Amino acid sequence: MQYSNSNVVTEILLLGFQNIQSFRIYLFLLLLIIFCVTVCGNLLIILVVSYSRSLHSPMYFFLTQLSFTDILLSTTIVPNMLHIVLCEGSHVSLITCLIQYYFFIASESLECLLLTVMSYDRYQAICNPLHYSSIIDLTFCLKAVLLCWVMMIAVTFLISVTMNHLWFCGPNVIDHFFCDFDPLLELSCSDTLFMKIEGIILAVPIVPCPFIVILVSYVYIIIIILKIPSVSGRQKTFSTCSSHLSVVSIFYGSLIIIYLFPNKGNVKKILSLLYTVVTPLLNPMIYSLSNRDIRQAFKKLSSKMLAVL
User: Fold this and answer.
1) 244-294: per-residue pLDDT in tens?
2) Per DSSP, which regions of the chain are E strands?
3) Of 74, 150, 171, 227, whose CB is crowded by the most CB atoms within 10 A?
4) What whole-number distance in Å separates Cα of residue 305 and Cα of residue 269?
5) How many CB atoms lie within 10 A of CB 35?
């Protein structure tokens, strides 16, 4: 089917959050604070881990990669969301909308894969401690991160190629605060069956498979922890993976609910906030507040910076 140029969508209206006039400014300020804390917090983790030699280990190396991903995700979603909240909607070009979606897919894919690698790291550290250093060495870390990036780039590229061949002829309104997969397909007049099938196929190695790996890893971890005779020993061992487990629960919980049980309207927007805004904020807070090594390294870095000033 052919479409005239007059029917092709070139601009999209993102509705964002509706009926919030009474607390629009408060929501804007809250999101602005969250964005600043998210970016600064994740940058601080990267800086502290890079500075402190005691943190030059696989777990913290993966944590810096996760922090970078959180910054990418937050800067992809939140700045335009702030504009939407302040102006009660935002007009963006179709190209801008698609680019935002591609960066969103890239950052979400990378986050899923990195959380999986981190769970495998915790599995080896707890279940196979004697051989941990020989298995999780620098070569493994670099290969694992490189594989995550390659898979992320491949998934994003394949989706972008197919998405760019769709015709978008209206309507040009998306009832969301960012450009997501389903809302974009609803604007297309092309046959989107292939796009949906491709999306499902590409999602398998990114969401379900990593989630299964994480689930199996923690089953083994819990079994090992329960075998520790002392309560203090169990608590100490569990504390080494509690931060990661908290992040995984929030991130995957909201992600699975929203895509396996699609919701409309405000419910979908609230769930989307969990993995696009809340998780990038909580990552540095959870890891820094509950991790004694990071707190100590931060104090040393702060003292050194104050001495220089």
Assistant:
1) 788 888 888 777 777 666 666 677 788 888 888 988 998 888 877 667 778
2) 11-14, 90-93, 173-174
3) 74
4) 41
5) 20
